[in-house]
Design brief:
Layout (H helix, E strand, L loop, with lengths): L6 E6 L14 E2 L2 E2 H9 L7 E7 L5 H9 L4 E4 L4 H12 L3 E6 L7 H14 L3 E3 L13 E4 H10 L3 H5 L3 H5 L5 E3 L17 H14 L9 H11 L10 H10 L11 H13 L23 E5 L2 E4 L4 E4 L14 H12 L9 H13 L5 E5 L2 H16 L3 E5 L6 H4 L10 H4 L2 E3 L5 H10 L4 E6 L9 H13 L3 E5 L3 H4 L4 H6 L5 E4 L10 E5 L1 H4 L15 H16 L2 H22 L6 E6 L2 E6 L8 H13 L2 E2 L3 E3 L6 H23 L21
Parallel strand pairs: 1-4, 1-6, 4-5, 7-9, 12-22, 14-15, 14-16, 16-17, 17-18
Antiparallel strand pairs: 2-3, 6-8, 7-8, 10-11, 11-12, 13-19, 18-19, 20-21, 21-23
Helix pairs in contact: 3-5, 8-9, 10-23, 10-25, 12-22, 17-18, 23-25, 24-25
The structure holds pyridoxal-5'-phosphate.
Pyridoxal-5'-phosphate (PLP) binds next to α14.
């Protein structure tokens, strides 16, 4: 039972719902939705009781009447301050531990509730939930917290959304000990079983019509899963947490954010202008790609999801060094591993055993890897891969798709081709992503001349596995090797890269970016007979065997293999992706704001009414976001260091920024008029 603590489920329920009026009492096979949930909750052994918490609004009389008629404990309180209703419910029931359930989840299961409550009691934490990330369908949500924490939440709630959604303050608080509970696989994180829209209700009715054949219940999760499969009903499509995103939007104003003090940034820029052409060592880190006078130019420090600029302004960083910091800045464990190695030397005169250990490990993780050579940058790896492909095939031409680095053979295909000899440019040819026939035509146009097809297997477009398979067949039909450039996809979409996700194994592949969580390391991996060419072909540079970065990489792999980093990235990335969409849609910007990609790495843009890129709207949005403490370039680069606090800060920044753009549109003002600096120079496009 409950460890001497009195554990009470508080079920919030209401009739008013703009999307589904009368929601809680909607009929589900002759029983109101709320009654279905209560019947399920009765099966939870970890509970000492439950109470329904509804509002004092007259529309909720029906809920009270239903509870009274069925001898159910009910309490009524504020309609909008649901948090205060919970405090009331906790007092009425004298609960020590509160289990938060919502009346719109008639397919909840008692074993799900028990698992989370028992985990909470066992871990001795202040708060536990099974929604960060979802490992069971939406509609199986459980949050558990103490009465003491609930009181603290009421006292400290800052926003309306804290009161309406009960737990945002608790989830943001860094002082409280929390447990993110994961149910055992299979993980059904995208399934939706809660009821918000008429479609959701139809789905739930179909499932219950199957369950009702199995007796009076309660039914456990497995039984519900089988009924879902048997009913074969389409699940609702609405977005999880939509109400929370809309609350943040409600709280936001369309007022311009105050400009940041960037004096120090400009002082450094003046000095930099004298000694550093382009102002940064990496193209996309230059101030030219941001709004001058609005965005900081120099950063001083970073920890986790946050960075501080030279003026002391702090930001949630959604650039994360252009993807390397998959665990966030300055991860303690990774840095400790690298520092420990550095203390016993790191740029050695001969090879070091850790090179072998890391190579062996990568060969276990990456499907195409029989052998490995290391580099420092992604460009080292792609250059090496293309060189051995040329040496292996005795051919010179390459087909390229995506971005592959700064070396002549690739950058010569872009508009930044200054300084690349014509003869080199003539050897590389681009092909469009997603069009296998175009590649076939390209390779046919120079029969037996292509050494390799090098491509990003996935970036912001999610391919069919059949597309990647046909690319492989086409490359091989023409005698070319297939190289997957997984510098970005490699560790961001999971260990093993896109080749593992899609089950298509290339001849060679390149990895980099997140391999060392910011410690510079990359690699080319591949088929033994091709990799052996490195014994003759030249890939060599002084720091390729720097073992501190290798020690960092070993630790990154430890963390990614055994921890919940990917799950946390999915939770954070999904919230930003969904939150942005919900807010843009609600403000009528749904057609103007576009976002695509994977929750861990997505890209966004603004377009005008003719579907053309709207750089001014984008700049205004970014200006407002930056000034509210969120640093973004063109993509959302998600790290596992993003927590509820930083995610909420970003979402709240989105809300203000969207409102500002919407206001400009409403008033017929060109967004450029509200941008306090020249529009950034767009980067050349390779994707
Ligand atoms: C897909 C891809 N390949 C190669 C590279 C080149 O990597 P680096 O800049 O580390 O040389 C990049 C860099 O952004 C990349 O995104």
């Amino acid at each position: 039972m409950s460890n001497q603590q009195r554990v009470i489920a508080v079920i919030q329920a209401r009739m008013s719902s703009s999307r589904l009026p009368g929601k809680s009492m909607k009929d589900v096979g002759g029983i109101p939705m709320l009654g279905r949930l209560i019947n399920q909750v009765r099966g939870a052994h970890s509970l000492d009781g439950f109470i329904i918490a509804t509002s004092t609004g007259p529309e909720d009389d029906e809920i009270e009447n239903y509870c009274n008629f069925n001898d159910l404990l009910v309490v009524r309180g504020s309609r909008d301050n649901v948090l205060s209703r919970y405090v009331l419910a906790a007092e009425v029931t004298d609960a020590d531990v509160i289990v938060r359930l919502t009346g719109d989840c008639p397919l909840h299961s008692p074993d799900t509730i028990d698992e989370v409550v028992n985990a909470y009691l066992g871990a001795g934490v202040d708060y536990a939930c099974n929604t960060n990330p979802y490992t069971r369908p939406d509609g199986q949500d459980v949050e558990v917290f103490s009465r003491q924490v609930l009181r603290q939440a009421l006292e400290n709630a800052e926003f309306e959304s804290d009161r309406e959604h009960v737990t945002p303050w608790i989830r943001r608080s860094s002082e409280l000990r929390r447990l993110d509970f994961f149910h055992a696989p299979p993980h059904l994180r995208s399934a939706r079983w809660s009821v918000d829209h008429p479609d959701d209700l139809e789905f739930v009715r179909s499932v219950w019509s199957v369950l009702d054949h199995g007796g009076p219940g309660p039914f456990d999760f497995e039984e519900i899963m089988s009924a879902v499969k048997e009913s074969n009903a389409p699940q609702g499509k609405s977005i999880i947490n939509e109400g929370f995103y809309l609350s943040l939007l409600n709280e936001a104003t369309a007022e311009a954010a105050a400009p940041l003090d960037l004096d120090e940034s400009f002082r450094w820029l003046e000095r930099s202008d004298q000694v550093i052409p382009g102002g940064a060592q990496t193209y996309s880190k230059s101030w030219r790609h941001h709004i001058r006078g609005v965005t900081p130019i120099f950063l001083r420090s970073g920890k986790g999801a946050m960075v501080k600029d030279v003026d002391g302004n702090e930001y949630v960083d959604l650039i994360q060094g252009l993807l390397p910091n998959i665990l966030g800045y300055a991860d303690d464990d990774v840095n400790e591993a690298a520092a420990k190695q550095a203390q016993s030397g790191h740029s050695f005169s001969l090879a070091h055993p850790i090179e072998v250990e890391l190579a062996e490990r990568l060969c276990r993780i990456i499907p195409c890897a029989d052998m490995v050579r290391f580099g420092k940058n992604g460009s080292d790896a792609t250059a090496g891969a293309v060189r051995i492909a040329r040496a292996y095939t005795g051919r010179e031409h390459v087909a390229v798709c995506g971005y592959h680095g700064w070396q002549d053979w690739f950058i010569g295909t872009t508009s930044r081709n200054a300084g690349v000899p014509k003869g080199v440019q003539e050897l590389a040819h681009t092909f469009p992503y997603g069009d296998a026939q175009a590649l076939d035509a390209l390779l046919s146009s120079r029969k037996d001349q292509f050494a390799a097809v090098i491509m990003e297997p996935v970036n912001f477009n999610w391919p069919e596995a059949s597309y990647l398979e046909s690319i492989k067949q086409i490359a091989h039909k023409h005698g070319a090797l297939l190289i997957f450039d997984e510098i970005c996809s490699g560790f961001h979409f999971g260990l093993g890269g896109a080749q593992k996700i899609f089950g298509v194994t290339p001849d060679l592949a390149t990895f980099g970016k997140a391999m060392g969580n910011g410690w510079p390391i990359s690699c080319v991996v591949g088929r033994r007979d091709v990799m052996k060419v490195f014994e003759d072909a030249f890939m060599s540079f002084t720091f390729a065997g720097d073992v501190s970065a290798m020690a960092a990489s070993m630790k990154v792999l430890d963390i990614l293999e055994s921890g919940d980093a990917y799950a946390r990235m999915t939770a954070a990335g999904t919230k930003l992706f969904d939150g942005a969409k919900v807010m843009a849609d609600r403000l009528g910007l749904g057609e103007r704001f576009q976002i695509k990609g994977h929750p861990h790495w997505s890209t966004f843009s603004f377009v005008d009414e003719n579907g053309k890129d709207d750089a001014a709207a984008r700049a205004l949005w970014l200006q407002e976001l930056t000034r509210r403490g969120v640093l973004v370039l063109t993509t959302f680069n998600i790290s596992s260091a993003l927590d509820e606090n930083t995610v909420t800060k970003v979402l709240s920044g989105f809300a203000h920024a969207f409102k500002r753009v919407a206001l400009a549109q409403e008033q017929g003002i060109s967004p450029a008029e509200w941008v306090d600096g020249p529009l950034p120079i767009p980067a050349f496009r390779a994707r």
